[in-house]
Each structure stands twice: as C-alpha cells, then as structure tokens.
Design a protein that fits this description.
paralog of FGE (formylglycine-generating enzyme), 8 helices, single chain, alpha+beta, 4-stranded mixed β-sheet, globular, disordered N terminus
Length: 300
C-alpha cells in the first residue's frame, strides 16, 4: 500500500531535487530506440486528437542544454496538454490526485504508475503497447536505495502505443522545436505569461523568498489545463502546473546513474530555476506528489 507523502516532506524533496542539474546527454539508449521505431511523419506542424506534430531536426533554441550538440530528433506527436484527471480515470478507474477536478492535471502518480497508464490506454484504443513491464525481475540498472519496486521496463520496438517523451524530446518540444524563439521558459521569457508556479498559483501573487509556509498559507494548487499562453508549437503548461515525467534516467555528478528519473518543466510548488526548459530535474521513480504529473507522446 502506498504511503501518502505529506506536503511538507514533498516540499523538502522538491527543494533538494532542484539543487543540481545533470550534464546534457548527446544520445540515450532510449532515444536511439525511439528514433529507430518512429514512423515517417509529415514535415509540417499539425495536430490530431489532442496531440501536436513536432517537426524534427536539430535544436534551434540557443538556451537549450542540447543546443550545438550532434543530436537530431525525428518527428513525433506530443500531447497538447498535460494528462488530465478525467483521462486518467477513464483508463485506470480511480483518481489518485490531491487536487480534484476533471480538467486539472493528474498528480500523485509515480513513474511506474504512468508507464502502466501508457500501456493500459494503448490497449484500450487498440494500439500495441510501447512497454513491456516485468514486475518480478528487478531492473539491474536501477541503483536507487529507496525504490523497492525496481520493475524491469523495456521498449517494444515498432509499437505504436502511448509512451513518455525522452528528456531530449520533451526539451525540444518545450523549446519550440524548429519554430523556437529561444525563450528561457516554454513560450516566453516572462514566466507569469505561461506558467503556474509558487508565486502565482494561489490566492495572491507572492513576493520575497520561497518558503513552504508562504505557499501553504496562500493555498497554492494545480490549475486547469490550457489557461496560460501556449508556446510556439501550441503546447500548454510545459512550464509550471505539474512537473512532467520523462523516460530517461537522470545523469549527473551528484547521483549515480540509475537512481533517479528525469522530470521537466517545474510545477506549482517550484521556483523559476526549475521551470526553465533546459533544467533537468530528478525524482525517485516510485516517488509521487501533488506537483508530479506527465504528458504523452504517441505513434502514428
């Protein structure tokens, strides 16, 4: 049974998790697998069923951690919005979120929860699941001292089901893809235009330094998806609201590879540093909290 995480403990974890950033990776094994299995897509930006077609290529945003690196992404579809509680309930049958509302982003979901959702939604819609999940065999690459699950999750090459974005895909989309104007945040240099974060996610705008009592007393919460301005690709809430899970293991000098998964975009609890599109956050794969959600990538 899950142990509920108190907001105070979560806030401490968020602050600790925001203290460092991993070195950019030129290519990950997961990204390579995605590139191999990606279907041919039209070259223009388009949309279908709540997903936006992101035209691939090299990183244009000069503030990206991947800018100038030898990495070129293929085209892919990514969710226009963060996955909502209604979408989660439709597939999983229950709502784990602390802040309840059908059009609020789902939160209080671990990386494992999200992987299961991807497969369940794929099967519900007649798609081939992107992941194989082995709950018995412990993942030998998982070096976490706190993760007792350590499920072995592998990619089904050629599958057309739903999946998590890689770190590079997420940052590329958040940065505006080939339409990027090199903003610091996803769609603007003014965070208040495009994001819900600790200063503006409550009853009034907060000044001064980040403190958990200030956030708590201000009744900060998640917000309805799609209220703030979108980025250059028409994607909403990639900065702020909830932090978003990615596929990749976090890589950095402060932690061993295989201990933490990457999270991106900051959330309603976070400050401006962790909200930058280039910032690479980290979280235990079995961890969950009221500022932790996700968005999907899908096949053709």
């Amino acid at each position: 049974m899950r142990k509920l995480v108190t907001c105070s403990l979560l806030a401490a974890m968020v602050v600790i998790g925001a203290c460092s950033q991993g070195e950019p990776k030129q290519q990950t094994e997961a990204a390579a697998a995605v590139k191999q299995t990606a279907a041919k897509q039209p070259a223009e930006v388009g949309s279908k069923d709540g997903f936006v077609l992101v035209k691939g290529g090299a990183f244009v945003n000069t503030k990206s951690s991947y800018y100038g690196k030898a990495l070129t992404l293929p085209d892919f579809y990514i969710g226009k919005y963060e996955v909502t509680q209604q979408e989660w309930v439709d597939v999983m049958g229950s709502n784990p979120s602390q802040f309840q509302g059908p059009k609020l982003p789902v939160e209080m979901v671990s990386w494992y929860d999200v992987i299961e959702y991807c497969n369940a939604r794929s099967m519900r819609e007649g798609l081939k699941p992107f992941y194989s999940i082995d709950k018995i065999t412990k993942d030998p690459n998982n070096k976490s001292e706190n993760d007792q699950l350590k499920w072995s999750v592998t990619i089904n090459e050629g599958a057309n089901g739903y999946r998590l974005p890689t770190d590079a895909e997420w940052e590329y989309a958040a940065s505006g893809g080939q339409l990027s104007q090199s903003f610091t945040y996803s769609g603007s240099n003014n965070i208040n235009e495009i994001a819900w974060y600790w200063r503006n996610a409550g009853e009034k705008y907060l000044d001064g330094d980040w403190t958990w009592p200030a956030i708590e007393n201000n009744h900060d919460t998640t917000k309805l998806i799609g209220i703030k301005k979108p980025n250059e690709l028409g994607l909403y809430d990639m900065t702020g609201n909830v932090r978003e899970w990615c596929w990749d293991w976090y890589v950095g000098e402060d932690v061993p590879q295989g201990a933490l998964r990457v999270v991106k975009g900051g959330g309603w609890i976070g400050d401006v540093g962790s909200a930058e599109s280039a910032y690479r956050g980290k979280f235990e794969p079995n961890g969950f909290g009221p500022d932790q959600g996700f968005r999907l990538v899908r096949g053709e």
